[in-house]
Amino acid sequence: MGDDGHTASLFPHTDALDVRDRLITVGNNGGDPRITFTVPLINQGRKIVFLVAGENKQTALSQVFSADADPHTYPSKFIQPANPHWLLDIAAGQGIPTTSQ
Q1: Are the C-beta atoms of 11 and 4 separated by less than 8 Å?
Q2: pLDDT digit string (tens) for 88-100?
Q3: pLDDT at 17
Q4: What is the 3-state secondary structure (H, E, C) of 40-59?
Q5: If you ran DSSP here, which 8-state letter would residue 74 be given?
Q6: Does the predicted TM-score (pTM) go above 0.70?
Q7: What is the pLDDT of residues 62-81, one digit of tens each?
Q8: DSSP label of 68
Q9: Do residues 27 and 14 lie in contact, with contact meaning Cβ atoms separated by under 8 Å?
């Protein structure tokens, strides 16, 4: 996950976030086109793993985990598979509540 909350090449406030009729689309990062899986395709994955490292990810990560954040602002929030796995380093996870399973 990027420090802006993006995942794959699904960047905040881009048209690719709302594509539901294709498996792959063109994302956009600062005017540069990038091929990406769509939200529905990613959500169909059998194993979804997020890797989040660095203190600069704390704000976005807390928003992705919050109940009321806008997924168009934090695209990783659109990714809602049945059993996601989050791998966080200590710096990224600072202040994020944990649960034991």
Answers
A1: yes
A2: 999 999 977 766 4
A3: 98
A4: HHHHCCCCCEEEECCHHHHH
A5: S
A6: yes
A7: 999 999 999 999 999 999 99
A8: S
A9: yes
- Per the structure, the complete domain to which residue 86 belongs is given by 15-93
The answer to whether residue 80 sits within a structural domain is yes
> Considering the chain, what percentage of its residues have pLDDT values greater than 70?
95
Compute the mean pLDDT over every residue in the chain, rounded to the nearest whole number: 93
Residue 6: inside a domain? no
Q: Is 73 helix (H, G, I), strand (E, B) or coil?
A: coil
User: Could you give the number of structural domains in the chain?
Assistant: 1
Residue 101 belongs to a domain: no
Query: Residue 77 corresponds to which tokens in the numbers above?
Result: 């929030």
Instruction: Please indicate, yes or no, if residue 10 is contained in any of the structural domains.
Output: no
Place of tokens 């048209």: 15
* Helix or strand holding residue 92 (H, E): helix 90-93
CA distance 93 to 89: 6
- CA-CA distance, 25 to 88, in Å (whole number)? 28
